[in-house]
Amino acid sequence: MFTSLSDRLSATFKNLRGKGRLSEADVDATIREIRRALLDADVALPVVRAFTGAVRERALSDEVSQALNPSQQVVKIVNDELVGILGGQTRRIQFAKRPPTVIMLAGLQGAGKTTLAGKLAHWLTSEGHRPMLVACDLQRPNAVNQLQIVGERAGAFVYAPEPGNGVGDPVKVARDAIEVAKTKLHDIVIVDTAGRLGIDEELMRQAADIRAAVNPDEVLFVIDAMIGQDAVTTAQAFNEGVDFTGVVLSKLDGDARGGAALSVASVTGKPIMFASTGEGLTDFETFHPDRMASRILD
Ligand code: GDP
Q1: pLDDT per residue as tens digits for the range 181-227
Q2: pTM of the full predicted structure?
Q3: Which H or E run includes 206?
Q4: CB of residue 193 inside a 6 A radius of ligand 1
Q5: Nearest atom in ligand 1 to 284's CA
Q6: Which amino acid positions bind GTP, per UniProt (predicted)?
Q7: ipTM of this model?
Q8: Which of 56, 70, 107, 177 reaches 20 to 30 Å from 196, CA-CA?
């Protein structure tokens, strides 16, 4: 992921290296290269515009003309602005003051929600919590079963509707699950919801209804980094539909160009909180905007 973007940006900076002073023409040539590299990596156009505008303005300011090493200063500016696009600060899970903390997962089918539920449960257990998983994806016949397998692997209790009890009503399942968590002393409830292949009003309404019923502390929108430009419209639709609190980029181990995923935080104004990097339970990390920017600019 990001190798092509990373290579293109380093090549651009190499052209600047050794220049004592940067003329406006040097800056503009650099901005043009950065713009092309970002667009070719699938970064959304409004994000590219805002980004290059901010870099240009700073690159032409005293900050650069008075720097000992102007080209290094430009790299630093690009780094700063990239950190900004990626959400700035590292954002961690907000735990409820009174347990259980409720974490709801939303996203398209195949995005990696169920896999993430297992990863979160595994990680939170290792941190001393007692998470419980809730199967609210009642659309796909196999989804409950899949969550049960994931839960077993992660060593977490899975709450799923009994046949005849709440089947077909994910809102009731979610609500009941919170009560069960309280009596069974689970301090974290992770609610897996249904996804569709495309954005779908009924699905969005259902997710919004679950959100309203259980008032989650976090709503994590899981997005497959491989889906390219569609990532932005999908993220916008989910942001309007369920007002998520954070983004999880999944499949960052793939070879997608990655730019669309990079646009999601900027376009929605919501932070990227986690990155998923494989199918295994531990292939997952807290997302640090500064580390990701350094990795891209390395
Ligand atoms: P859901 O429909 O959103 O619940 O998606 P799943 O969790 O079922 O994931 C869909 C597919 O993507 C499964 O085959 C997962 O093993 C795979 N998957 C999930 N996360 C990752 C990831 O970070 N990297 C890779 N390579 N595969 C993943």
Answers
A1: 999 999 999 999 988 888 888 889 999 999 999 999 999 999 998 88
A2: 0.94
A3: helix 201-214
A4: no
A5: 23
A6: 107-114, 192-196, 250-253
A7: 0.99
A8: 177
